[in-house]
C-alpha cells in the first residue's frame, strides 16, 4: 500500500483529482461526468501524440517533428478529401497512417543508418515537413465546406456514450500498453533506452528498435492528423504548431525519463490529462488562455526537477558517471 | 545532451578516414591551418552561392543591397557564437529565441513607461543575463539535462511574453534606440555588422586562445576526464549559459531596435536557425569540436541563401525547407563520404 501511494502515477492521479475538485469550487459542474468526458475528448489527440513521443523517448531519442508530421499529413488528406470526395474514409485514414509512418521512417532512417543525433534530425524535418505542407497547399486553407460530411462526422459520432475520437485514444492506449508489455519490440525499446550497450550485448539491434519507434510515432501522428483536421474542421499550414512540446511535456510530467528506458503508458496518459485539465480550466476560472504556455513551461521544469530528484535518490548519479567511461575509450580510439 | 548514446557518440566511422572535425592540437595555429578542412569547403560553398546570387538577380551586386543582406544573419550569428561554445561543451540551449521575446517585451514595457535608451539597453542585457542564469542554474547546479530544461524555459520565457502582451504589441521606442538596429557606423557598414565582427573576434580569442576555451573543448570531449583534471565543469557550463543569455539579450536589443516593435511571437523559430548555423559551421553536435571561424562562414552562407531566395521572391516558409535540408545534409554528407572512403579501403 505504501509503495502504491509512492508511485508516480498514483501521485499524479491524486494531483489531477485535487485540481478538478479545486476548479469545481470556482465553477460548478466542472467535475460533472459530462464535463470530464469533454475534457478527455479534448485531450484525446494529445494522449495519442504523447504516447507516440513516449515510444521514441523510451529508446533514448526524441521526435520534435510529430506536430509538423501531423500538419503535413493532415493537409494531404484534407486536400484529397476536398478534391476527390468519392474516396472512402477508411482509405483516407489508412493513407494518413501510411504517410505519417513514411515521414517517421525518414527520421528513423537518418537516426539509425546515419547515426545523426535524433534532436538534430527532427529539428530539421520539423521545418521541412511544415514547409512541405505550405508547398503542398500553396498557403491555402481547406475549410469545412470543402470536406465531406462523413469525413467530418465520424470522430464526433457517439458510440456507447463516448465520441469515436475518445475511443480512438482509448484504443491507442490499449495498443501501446500491450505492445510495450507483450511484444519483443516493446521490451527492446526499454532495453535500448535503459542501457544501449547492454542491449547490444543482449542481441538487441538498438538502431533498428529506434527506427521502429520513429515509424510508430509517425504512424500515430498520421492517425492524429485525421482526427485533428476532422475535429477542428479546417486544415492549414500552422495547425498544431508547437504541439510537439506539449507531447514532450506530457511525457516528462508522466515520469518518462528523457534519458530513455523509463516510463509507463498510464503515467504518460495522466501527464496528458494533467495538461488537458489545466487547458480546460483556465477559461472557466477566468484566466487568460495566454498564460497556458508559461504554465506548460513551468510544469515541464518542475517535472524534470522532480524526476531528477527521484533518480538521484536511486543512486543513478554513479551510473551516469560510469556511462561516461565508454566515451573515454572512443576518444582515444 | 542526453539523447545521445555511447555508441552514437562518434559518427565518423573507421579510424582510417580523416575526422571531419579535428581538434586542433596546438593553440595559435596559423589562420589557414585552422580553416583547413570543413571551413574551406564551406567557404567554397559561400563563394558559389555568392556567384549564383549575382547571376540570378541583377540587384544583388549593389553595396547597399549587400549591406542589407547582412541583417539576415547578424543577430542570429551573435547568438550562434555563444551557442557554438555551449554545443562544444556538450550542452544546448533551445530557449534563445524565447529569451529574445522576453527581453524585447521587457524593453517594450520599459519604453512605454518612458525609460530612455540607456535604460532600455540595460534592461535588455539584464533580462538576457537573468534568463541565462536560470538556465545555467537548472543545468549546472540542479544537474538537469539541458535539452528538456531549455524546452521548458523556452515555453516559460515566451509564455511570460504572451501573458504580458497577449495579442497586443509594444511600439514607441525612443528615436535614439533605433541606432542599434538601423544605424551605420561607417559608410555601408551597419552597427549590427560591426558588432558581429567584434563579437566574432572576441569569441575566437575566447575559444581558441584562452584557458577557458581549452576547458570548453575538454569538457565536450570527455567531461568525466575533465572533472579528474580539475576543471570546474559545472562552473564553465554555468558561465556558458550566462554568456548565451547575454548574447540573446544583445540580439534582442538589435532586433527590437530594427523592427521598432515587439510582439510575443518575435524571433519565433530562431533557436532552430541558430543551431543550424552552429552545426553548419562544423561544430560537432555531440560536443568537443568546432571553430568560431566555421560559424562565421556558416552565418554568411545562411545569410546569402535566405537573401538570395528572398530576391527571387521565395516565401519565408519555403526558405525554412532549405534551412532544414541544409542542416541535415551538411551533417549527413561527411558521414556518408566517410563510409564510402572506409568501404573503398576495406
UniProtKB/TrEMBL annotation, chain A:
**Ranges in coiled-coil conformation:** none
Please indicate if the UniProt record lists DNA-binding as a keyword.
no
Q: How does it sit in the membrane?
A: Multi-pass membrane protein
Q: Where in the cell is it found?
A: Cell membrane
Q: From what superkingdom does this record's organism come?
A: Bacteria
Q: Where, by residue number, does the polypeptide cross the bilayer?
A: 39-59, 66-84, 90-112, 119-142, 157-180, 210-229, 250-278, 284-306
- What molecular functions are annotated in GO for this chain? transmembrane transporter activity
Where does this chain mainly localize?
membrane
Entry keyword set: Cell membrane, Membrane, Transmembrane, Transmembrane helix
- UniProt-listed CDD domains: TM_PBP1_transp_AraH_like
One Pfam family name is BPD_transp_2
Q: Which GO terms describe its cellular component?
A: plasma membrane
InterPro entries assigned to the protein according to its UniProt record, in alphabetical order: ABC_transp_permease
rRNA-binding: present as a keyword of the record? no
State the protein's name.
Branched-chain amino acid ABC transporter permease
Q: What is the lineage of its organism?
A: Bacteria, Pseudomonadati, Pseudomonadota, Alphaproteobacteria, Hyphomicrobiales
Automatic annotation (TrEMBL), chain B:
- Asked if the keyword Nucleotidyltransferase belongs to this entry, the reply reads no
Could you give one GO CC term from the UniProt record?
plasma membrane
Alphabetized GO MF terms: transmembrane transporter activity
Q: What membrane topology term does the record carry?
A: Multi-pass membrane protein
User: Which compartments does it reside in?
Assistant: Cell membrane
For the region Disordered, give the residue spans: 1-23
Write out the transmembrane intervals: 40-61, 81-103, 115-138, 144-165, 177-207, 238-260, 272-305, 317-337
Query: Where is it mainly found?
Result: membrane
* Subunit structure, as described in the record: The complex is composed of two ATP-binding proteins (LsrA), two transmembrane proteins (LsrC and LsrD) and a solute-binding protein (LsrB).
Function (record text): Part of the ABC transporter complex LsrABCD involved in autoinducer 2 (AI-2) import. Probably responsible for the translocation of the substrate across the membrane.
Its name, as the record gives it, is Autoinducer 2 import system permease protein LsrD
Amino acid at each position: 500500500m505504501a509503495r502504491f501511494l509512492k508511485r508516480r502515477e498514483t501521485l499524479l492521479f491524486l494531483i489531477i483529482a485535487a485540481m478538478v475538485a479545486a476548479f469545481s469550487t470556482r465553477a460548478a459542474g466542472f467535475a460533472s461526468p459530462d464535463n470530464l468526458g469533454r475534457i478527455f475528448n479534448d485531450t484525446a489527440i494529445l494522449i495519442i501524440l504523447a504516447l507516440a513521443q513516449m515510444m521514441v523517448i523510451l529508446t533514448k531519442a526524441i521526435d520534435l517533428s510529430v506536430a509538423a508530421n501531423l500538419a503535413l499529413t493532415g493537409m494531404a488528406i484534407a486536400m484529397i478529401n476536398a478534391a476527390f470526395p468519392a474516396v472512402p474514409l477508411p482509405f483516407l485514414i489508412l493513407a494518413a497512417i501510411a504517410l505519417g509512418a513514411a515521414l517517421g521512417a525518414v527520421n528513423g532512417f537518418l537516426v539509425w543508418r546515419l547515426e545523426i543525433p535524433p534532436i538534430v534530425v527532427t529539428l530539421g524535418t520539423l521545418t521541412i515537413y511544415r514547409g512541405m505542407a505550405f508547398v503542398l497547399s500553396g498557403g491555402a486553407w481547406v475549410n469545412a465546406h470543402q470536406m465531406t460530411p462523413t469525413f467530418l462526422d465520424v470522430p464526433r459520432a457517439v458510440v456507447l456514450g463516448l465520441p469515436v475520437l475518445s475511443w480512438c485514444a482509448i484504443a491507442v492506449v490499449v495498443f501501446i500498453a500491450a505492445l510495450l508489455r507483450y511484444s519483443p519490440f516493446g521490451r527492446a525499446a526499454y532495453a535500448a533506452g535503459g542501457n544501449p550497450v547492454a542491449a547490444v550485448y543482449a542481441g538487441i539491434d538498438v538502431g533498428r528498435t529506434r527506427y521502429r519507434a520513429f515509424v510508430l510515432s509517425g504512424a500515430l501522428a498520421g492517425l492524429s492528423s485525421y482526427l485533428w483536421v476532422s475535429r477542428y474542421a479546417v486544415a492549414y499550414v500552422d495547425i498544431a504548431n508547437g504541439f510537439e512540446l506539449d507531447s514532450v511535456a506530457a511525457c516528462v510530467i508522466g515520469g518518462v525519463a528523457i534519458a530513455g528506458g523509463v516510463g509507463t503508458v498510464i503515467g504518460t496518459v495522466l501527464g496528458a490529462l494533467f495538461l488537458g485539465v489545466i487547458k480546460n480550466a483556465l477559461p472557466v476560472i477566468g484566466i487568460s488562455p495566454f498564460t497556458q504556455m508559461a504554465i506548460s513551461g513551468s510544469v515541464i521544469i518542475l517535472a524534470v526537477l522532480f524526476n531528477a530528484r527521484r533518480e538521484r535518490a536511486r543512486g543513478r548519479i554513479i551510473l551516469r558517471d560510469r556511462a561516461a567511461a565508454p566515451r573515454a575509450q572512443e576518444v582515444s580510439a | 545532451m542526453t539523447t545521445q548514446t555511447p555508441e552514437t557518440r562518434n559518427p565518423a566511422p573507421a579510424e582510417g578516414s580523416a575526422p571531419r572535425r579535428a581538434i586542433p592540437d596546438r593553440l595559435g595555429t596559423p589562420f589557414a591551418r585552422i580553416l583547413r578542412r570543413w571551413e574551406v569547403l564551406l567557404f567554397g560553398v559561400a563563394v558559389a552561392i555568392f556567384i549564383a546570387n549575382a547571376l540570378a538577380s541583377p540587384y544583388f551586386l549593389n553595396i547597399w543591397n549587400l549591406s542589407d543582406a547582412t541583417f539576415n544573419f547578424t543577430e542570429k550569428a551573435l547568438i550562434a557564437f555563444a551557442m557554438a561554445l555551449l554545443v562544444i561543451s556538450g550542452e544546448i540551449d533551445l530557449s534563445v529565441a524565447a529569451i529574445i521575446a522576453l527581453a524585447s517585451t521587457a524593453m517594450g514595457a520599459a519604453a512605454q513607461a518612458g525609460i530612455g535608451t540607456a535604460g532600455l539597453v540595460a534592461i535588455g542585457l539584464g533580462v538576457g543575463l537573468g534568463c541565462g542564469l536560470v538556465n545555467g542554474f537548472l543545468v549546472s547546479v540542479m544537474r538537469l539535462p539541458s535539452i528538456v530544461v531549455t524546452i521548458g524555459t523556452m515555453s516559460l520565457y515566451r509564455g511570460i511574453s504572451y501573458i504580458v502582451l497577449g495579442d497586443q504589441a509594444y511600439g514607441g521606442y525612443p528615436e535614439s534606440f533605433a541606432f542599434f538596429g538601423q544605424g551605420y557606423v561607417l559608410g555601408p557598414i551597419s552597427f549590427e555588422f560591426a558588432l558581429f565582427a567584434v563579437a566574432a573576434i572576441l569569441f575566437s580569442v575566447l575559444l581558441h586562445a584562452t584557458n577557458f576555451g581549452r576547458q570548453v573543448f575538454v569538457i565536450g570531449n570527455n567531461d568525466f576526464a575533465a572533472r579528474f583534471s580539475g576543471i570546474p565543469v559545472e562552473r564553465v557550463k554555468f558561465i556558458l549559459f550566462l554568456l548565451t543569455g547575454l548574447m540573446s539579450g544583445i540580439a534582442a536589443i538589435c532586433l527590437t531596435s530594427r523592427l521598432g516593435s515587439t510582439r510575443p511571437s518575435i524571433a519565433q523559430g530562431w533557436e532552430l536557425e541558430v543551431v543550424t548555423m552552429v552545426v553548419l559551421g562544423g561544430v560537432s553536435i555531440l560536443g568537443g569540436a568546432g571553430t568560431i571561424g566555421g560559424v562565421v562562414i556558416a552565418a554568411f552562407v545562411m545569410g546569402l541563401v535566405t537573401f538570395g531566395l528572398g530576391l527571387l521572391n521565395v516565401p519565408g516558409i519555403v526558405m525554412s525547407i532549405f534551412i532544414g535540408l541544409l542542416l541535415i545534409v551538411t551533417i549527413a554528407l561527411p558521414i556518408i563520404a566517410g563510409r564510402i572512403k572506409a568501404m573503398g579501403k576495406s
